[in-house]
Amino acid sequence: MPTSSPTYHIVLLTTDPTVKAQVRQIFTDAAISIFRDAATFQQELPSHRVDIIIEELPHPQGPVTTWSDHLDVTHTLFIQGSPAVLRQTLSMIQPMFAPSNLHLNKAREGSLENYLEVKMGEFVKGMRNGSARNLHPILISAVERPLITSALQETRGNQIQAAELLGLNRNTLRKKIVNLHIPLKQTKLRANRSV
What we know:
Blueprint: E1 9-13, H1 17-26, E2 31-35, H2 38-43, E3 52-56, E4 77-81, H3 83-93, H4 99-107, H5 112-129, H6 135-154, H7 159-166, H8 170-179, H9 184-193
Parallel strand pairs: 1-2, 1-3, 3-4
Helix pairs in contact: 1-3, 4-5, 6-7, 6-9, 7-8
């Protein structure tokens, strides 16, 4: 079974244990590399991309690390500050990386498969908590009904064209329309309104 790649590659440059714990808690599916300071990290530059650098700046008036010599800074988020500033900033961004928001972000990535995976996961979890059984036919009809309705709207109610679009035999489509109680008149009306 293939392992999933991490969502983020984070470089954490701090000695503060609280900041380290916050980063591990917030970015549960990230690859986190921890270094004492920027100089140590720059000696061991990773071969993979770096999405986020969280850097502790020990002295407020101290020098700020110049990263443009070492990384493509146009694709990296930098969070820099004292340990107190880092802890506060991490607390502020934590809700953005909550598991439910990560699922929503994944669903918004544009892939129908990603969207369905997120929505099906939510549905299955809810049904399991309710002790449901026979989810396969329930899910198939839940997906099939709007799919057929959309195909009929796209073809303005033409069942032959809708069957071709769906890759079904026209008689099979007709049987599904009846079994799934898809109202043909409403489908034609919606198609005409969207023109």
